[in-house]
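Hi Y.,

Following your request, here is the sequence exactly as I used it, all 326 residues.
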Amino acid sequence: MADIGIDLGTGTTVVCHPREGVVHDEPTLLVEWPARRGRELLVGDDAAALLGRTPAGARVGHPLRGGAVTDLSLVRTYLHQLVRQTARGRWRLRRPHAVLSCPVEATPLERRALLESAEEAGLAHVELLAAPLAAALGCGLDLADTRVQAVVDVGAGTAEIAVFCRGVVLTARSCRDAGDEMTAALRAHLRDEHGLHLSAAAADDLKIRTSAAREALVTEGRDVASGRPRVATIEAGETEAAVAPVVARAVTALADCLEDLPVAGVPDLLAGGVVLVGGASAALHLREQLETALGFPVKVPERPRTCVAEGLTLAGGRPELRSRPA
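Below is the corresponding structure, written out as tokens. Let me know if you'd prefer a different format.
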């Protein structure tokens, strides 16, 4: 059995252990802090706390962009530090095995880059599984089922949908209009319409709070004209309008998968629905718009953020699933 499942996302990394459950759910971020002797490596929440506060000589690294590895050395360093921090003595005596998530439409080159980075980071044996299939496992779906099933995974860097039968993908679509693009659209709106500059973290927090509230929200930023700090009140409807074009583009791109959907699968999806997971699954009106565009009921599981990592851990004990193409 694999020791751990690692959902390595653009915005967040989730690590799950077969017996201990989720042991890490923090930003996919690495900070190399200048120290008297060499450098200090910080990942996750520790690194995120230093964003915008780093001195000269510090390096802030985002290991993935749009769900893909862009810097092999950075990903290797990040994973090495992540495993050391997460293990906490659990796996010191041996190199852990792992199943990692990857985009459903990852190219062979992208898959190889991820595998090489993980193995060079100190993982003994690494296998990949497409994130939507892992999410299906984590949500309790049976990949051996002969009925057609579908999962939409919306993260920070990518949004993707996979329609599959017996664990084999029948059709899939992906796009880059996901959580990060929504945050960027909100920042641009506040800068242009309110003269307010927000950090990416503050804008993301505002976006998340708007999803759970309908009243006006208060946020803090810097005035574009004067450079002074300023507190602003933003109406929930305004935030929704700012991210709406990104949500609409994502929904349109994902709905294109219907062109290749087997007709025999329509009754299956009408009965079972489509599962929506991922860190950005709570984006404003995303579920409702997906239902309208796809024509199928869309369900959000109890743990949409961590079900991919949980599914990866389950796949670790089922080699017949890991051997399937991602």
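Residues 96 and 189 are 45 Å apart (CA to CA).

Thanks again,
Q.
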